């Protein structure tokens, strides 16, 4: 069968993955680094499944995952040639995403062992991750300083982070936000919910009228609010987490008392905030992000809140590199130094991993990241 590549990585395909592993002894998956269909921006995989599993389920389901460089490597070859050399790997948990089958059997075994280890937990043990503020129309609700000046509507906004590019390091503070405001970036979120429907100033009333003339109030998110211009859930998180990730799943300490639009996730910590943020900077968390997240061919890794809280963390927060130092090094392009330091104090000293296991995690992250970035597909 030819199926959407989302089968490998999205949570809503879990039932289909379970259906297949319940019924077949062998599943062969073939992916391609080119878009096979010239007129469709849709990644696909080829699925070949055979061998009925017994009702007792004492036998196991095995999977191979082959990645071809070009469509021609698939279309001009026999099935046997395409599948040759792809080792069989045992599917252990039906709920696991199948992206991990791009890894070797030893790498898969390590990730499974770590997830089951007493020394490892998930981010959910320390924090909740939620979407950012859903305005319904960011262009209308998130303004520049020059907009506030021309409209004369000062005093009714809160500071938001509205783009990943606004987060340069491991923290964002007042000076960072002020620099963005001085550069006339969109960092002023119109917050009218506290007015509770009371009378608006003439200037605000004029701006809301302008929005209605633009039919912004008829958009779905705005139309289900009363009043439509009162954006809900404008709360301040302890930290931010990137929703769309290029390289590393960066968590950023919020020292600017800012909120975020829905391009950024908001994190509330149940334990020490700075320690929680600092302990995310390891190759353990990075490797698990590449497996838990999803990529749609543009090279960007996307994490939804439930996927973000499933990222692996040490079960007990360790004395990691301080956030201020992490921030300084990351802004200098020295993330690797942060990760290597924290691998030593968190993964080796804290959890008890060997140097070899730490290097394996580094390799897993690099392999999955490089594969994702290489899949900025061209049409066949």
Report on this structure:
The chain has 380 residues and is α+β, with helices and mostly antiparallel strands. The chain has three domains: 101 residues, no CATH class; 91 residues, no CATH class; 110 residues, no CATH class. The protein has a five-stranded mixed beta sheet. Helix 11 packs parallel to helix 15. The longest helix has 20 residues. The chain is globular and about 75 Å long. The model has no long low-confidence stretch (mean pLDDT 90).
Task: Considering the chains and any ligands shown, give keywords for the structure.
15 helices, five-stranded mixed sheet, 22 strands, alpha+beta, 21% strand, 380 residues
Topology:
Blueprint: E1 2-4, H1 14-23, E2 24-32, E3 34-35, E4 44-52, E5 62-68, H2 71-75, H3 79-83, E6 89-90, H4 105-116, E7 120-122, E8 127-130, H5 138-141, E9 142-143, H6 145-151, E10 157-158, E11 160-161, E12 171-173, H7 174-182, E13 188-190, H8 202-213, H9 220-223, E14 239-242, E15 244-245, E16 251-255, E17 259-260, E18 264-269, H10 273-278, H11 283-292, E19 294-295, E20 301-302, H12 305-308, E21 312-314, H13 323-331, H14 335-351, H15 355-374, E22 378-379
Quick description:
The chain has 380 residues and is an alpha+beta fold.
Question: What percent strand?
Answer: 15-25%
Lateral arrangement of strands in the main beta sheet: 1-4-2-5-6
Poorly predicted tracts of residues: none
Domain count, please report it: 3
